[in-house]
Automatic annotation (TrEMBL):
InterPro entries: Autotransporte_beta, Autotransporte_beta_dom_sf, OM_autotransptr_brl_dom. NCBIfam families: autotrans_barl. The lineage of its organism: Bacteria, Pseudomonadati, Thermodesulfobacteriota, Desulfovibrionia, Desulfovibrionales. The keyword Magnesium does not apply. SMART domains: Autotransporter. Residues 365-641 form the Autotransporter domain. This is Outer membrane autotransporter barrel domain protein. PROSITE patterns: AUTOTRANSPORTER. GO terms for cellular component: outer membrane. Residues 1-35 form the signal peptide. Keywords: Signal.
Length: 641
């Protein structure tokens, strides 16, 4: 069973003197101080006079509508303290007098409240208005309202609502309700239970009652110890699946540990729900459920019931599947792949365009100043990493180049700015066949230098050497709902340095005045720094990654006329490293790698729209097979100033 929970103002003035600036600053600070309690205490709501048959006092409501269009997106946040508002009426995320109240939210962080109830959504409709998919989040405070309701409907259903509780709130004088669906005398019951969820992210919570929840999710903190109690209910508790009525979907229980290490040992117990009276639960709840500590340890819990308690007992503790611990490193693999694509752009179209832009005079001496050039490439690729990573990316570079007056050789120097952006999806599979997927984005910004020297006289004419050096900043993120579904989305966001270089040797043979062939060998080195992150409470070290690649290839070109010159080529590339090592909770994790060979083919054309101008365009396409599979394209612009 895979359990998936959801989861400064600029002042437009310029003082003309020191005293004016001081006065303006003091005025701003005074206004800020006066306004601070107002915006700090609440956000997103207004005081409304609600129908007297429901409430005796005005309520505080995120969105209020008195028509059939319904309300959605209401969001009331009380932070840091609701006491200042002195509310005796209800607090409601979204109130509809005539329609649905779906997708609204209330958040309470502290303070004291004893009013007429907390409601994620409230539909006051004698027809069929529903109160569904609303959320109430409580992280602190002393709360004793008439009740805490995910959703409340007087004419429809109240399903799919969620109550989330964190921290140490005092709820000992109120009850927790997933939903409430009122019916008139003689009317059939309406569903106020299906898909309603109670999430508890703390210990030692106390309440008067719990009602109308299908799903229970217990997120045990890393400080949990054997014998701890999560929730004490000062009344009887009924969580068994109804045998009849509008909701007969089975009750589910999920347990996860938010933190690293193994705070519990085999045979330790934690009381999930304790009633001061009786507890009624399904007999089938004695079946085992799995929970994880972070992403490193897999706990198997057995659920047990007594006369008054629901208890989770640790049956076994194992290391999680390799694919779970490997998945976070796929984000680093995608990052190094993105930066290597930038290296390909700089050493390929970028170098070629810089050379073409900085044209030579007839006497093989530099005739012009600096020439501008630019190149961009895009690709969709699949990298075999032991699993695989799919990436869509775009890279851009622009710079200036110049040929220097050196007798007997063509010497080119230049500098450039580069940036790239990519999105990726990684795919792993557990030994049991479950899919472990992740997504993320990578972005890089940097710059570099390039140089090229070609012999233009004698028997070595056509022989050349080239090089680039690059450095910049790389930011990447990672997201997955599959590592520990009970604890929610696993994620990290890192910003690290990258740097690298390439060198190459080649020979250009001018077969005829129109035809030529370029045979080359290149070496690429790219490095990205590592980072330390925390993923669902587990400490994870993402190591530095180095890529070492060689490429052997050839390109043939032919000038059809002064304006059009098509070309095509092929190459073989081999990656000697590209391995993303990591350590999860102190233990080495399986490492994805880009090591292996890739064959590539290319076709393109250089077009000069007007022969007598310094402007030209290069358009090309590439295909890849091997460790990297996919297609790419590049567009290059050159202009001689």
């Amino acid at each position: 069973m895979r359990l998936r929970p959801p989861q400064a103002t600029t002042i437009p003035w310029r003082a003309h003197s020191h005293s004016a600036r001081v006065a303006a600053t003091l005025l701003f600070l005074a206004l800020f101080a006066l306004a601070a309690p107002l915006w700090a205490a609440n956000f997103g709501g207004t005081t409304e006079n609600l129908p007297s048959w429901n409430f005796a006092n005005p309520g505080y409501v995120g969105i209020y509508k008195s028509d059939t269009t319904g309300v959605t997106g209401g969001n009331v946040i009380f932070d840091p303290d609701i006491t200042d508002l002195n509310i005796s009426g209800p607090i409601i995320g979204g109130y509809s007098d005539g329609g649905n109240a779906n997708g609204n939210q209330v958040t309470i962080t502290s303070g004291t409240y004893a009013g007429e109830g907390l409601y994620g959504g409230f539909s006051d409709d004698s027809g069929s208005g529903n109160a569904s998919n609303n959320t109430v989040i409580i992280t602190g405070g002393t709360l004793s309202p008439l009740g805490v309701f995910g959703g409340f409907s007087t004419g429809g259903i109240a399903t799919g609502n969620t109550l989330r509780i964190f921290g140490n709130p005092d709820l000992s004088r109120t009850a927790l309700m997933g939903g409430r669906a009122e019916v008139g005398s003689g009317d059939p019951a309406r569903d106020a239970r299906t898909d309603n969820t109670l999430e508890i992210h703390t210990l030692n919570l106390q309440t008067l009652g719990i009602e109308n929840f299908q799903h229970f999710r217990f997120y045990l903190p890393g400080t949990v110890r054997a014998g701890d109690t999560v929730l004490t209910v000062d009344n009887g508790v009924v969580i068994e699946t109804p045998s009849s009525g509008p909701s007969i979907a089975p009750t589910t229980v999920g347990v996860g540990i938010m933190g690293s290490g193994t705070p519990l040992a085999v045979n330790d117990t934690v009381t999930l729900i304790k009633s001061t009276s009786r507890l009624y639960a399904d007999t089938g709840m004695t079946n085992n459920v799995s929970g994880m500590a972070g992403i490193s340890s897999l706990y198997t819990f057995g659920l047990e019931t007594t006369l008054n308690s629901l208890v989770a007992r640790v049956i076994s503790i194992e290391q999680t599947d390799e694919s779970v611990r490997k998945s976070p490193s796929e984000g680093k693999t995608a990052s190094i792949a993105l930066v290597t694509q930038g290296a390909d752009l700089a050493a390929g179209p970028g170098m070629g365009n810089a050379r073409a832009a900085a044209s030579l005079g007839a006497d093989n001496m530099a005739q012009a100043g600096w020439s501008g050039f630019g190149a961009t490439s895009g690709a969709t690729s699949r990298y075999a990493t032991g699993s695989h990573v799919d990436m869509q990316s775009v890279a851009l570079m622009t710079g200036l180049a110049k040929r220097l007056p050196v007798s007997g050789v063509d010497l080119l120097v230049g500098g450039f700015f580069e940036t790239s952006i990519g999105s990726y999806d990684s795919h792993n599979e557990t030994a049991a066949g479950d899919s472990i997927t992740a997504q993320g984005d990578s972005r890089s910004v940097g710059g570099g230098l390039l140089g090229r020297v070609e012999v233009t006289e004698g028997v070595a004419r056509g022989l050349y050497a080239e090089a680039t050096v690059r450095a910049g900043r790389l930011r990447s993120d990672y997201r997955s709902d599959d590592l520990n579904p009970t604890l929610g989305e696993a994620e990290y966001d890192i910003s690290v340095a990258y740097y690298g270089a390439h060198t190459g040797l080649g020979y250009i043979w001018n077969i005829t005045e129109q035809a030529w062939i370029d045979v080359y060998a290149k070496y690429f080195w790219t490095h990205t720094n590592g980072a330390d992150v925390s993923i669902l409470g587990d400490a994870v070290t993402l190591d530095d990654v180095d890529s070492h690649r060689t490429r052997l290839g050839a390109r043939f070109g032919y000038s059809l006329n002064e304006c059009i010159a098509p070309y095509f080529g092929a190459a073989w590339e081999y990656e000697f490293d590209g391995t993303a090592h990591s350590v999860v909770a102190g233990v080495d994790a399986p490492a994805p790698s880009l090591k292996g060979g890739t064959g590539l083919g290319e076709v393109g054309v250089t077009w000069k729209p007007l022969p007598d101008t310094g402007f030209s365009i290069d358009l090309g396409a590439q295909g890849y097979t091997g460790i990297r599979e996919g297609v790419g394209g590049n567009l290059s612009l050159m202009y001689e100033f």
